[in-house]
């Protein structure tokens, strides 16, 4: 079993409007995931440095950032990053281009499990449904070409339980909208979701704790994933 989490950390700025990366790392530690997909992991302006300094990640956790950045002070791409436990082999890390009106992208890693490799994709989709659907189509095409089991998760910015802008993904993969995640202090929307191929068994839930409710405007989601042996 592998535990995967997705978390929009809002640049480590909490409900109290204070940037506290140590608090963000504490929430990540609460979840206890093997792979953590992050959104809004970089600051918005200037060199867009990581909101979670790499030395802090090393000091406060057993994670390492996947090698996805094209900027020296960043740990991701278009704000998307993936943390992986240091003892979990990463076979490949990749940036995925998405169609956009505003800059968007997705990131992926291939991790090695005893039952075989698994692709984990993290994404933060557009605010408008038109562009969300275009991005979902691109991700569905990528998933359809994948040669191994795949799980996609992230802040997909679709409010209703049935994601009407996400039909290309829902038509190909199993959809999980485990609960309301936004705004974290009193959630009303299921913005954070997961999609998996049929070779995976998934148990998903929202990570709702007192610390998570104040550390970001999103609650994290987590999934316990079992890859069926080939």
How is this structure best described in words?
The chain has one domain: Deoxyribonuclease I, Chain A (4-Layer Sandwich). Helix content is 20%, strand content 32%. It has five helices and twelve strands. It has a six-stranded mixed beta sheet, with helices on one face. The longest helix has 17 residues, at 129-145. The protein is globular, with a radius of gyration of 16 Å.
CATH topology label: Deoxyribonuclease I, Chain A
Structural class category: alpha+beta
Mean pLDDT: 93
Helix content: 10-25%
Low-confidence stretches: none
- Helix count, per DSSP? 5
CATH class designation: Alpha Beta
List its traits.
alpha+beta; Deoxyribonuclease I, Chain A; 32% strand; 20% helix; 230 residues; 5 helices
What's a concise summary of this model?
The protein has about 230 residues and is an alpha+beta fold.
Q: How is the topology of this model organized?
A:
Elements: E1 2-8, H1 21-31, E2 35-39, H2 54-60, E3 63-65, E4 81-85, E5 90-97, E6 105-113, E7 116-124, H3 129-145, E8 150-155, H4 167-170, E9 174-176, E10 192-196, E11 200-206, H5 210-215, E12 221-227
Parallel strand pairs: 1-2, 7-8
Antiparallel strand pairs: 1-12, 2-4, 3-4, 5-6, 6-7, 8-10, 9-10, 11-12
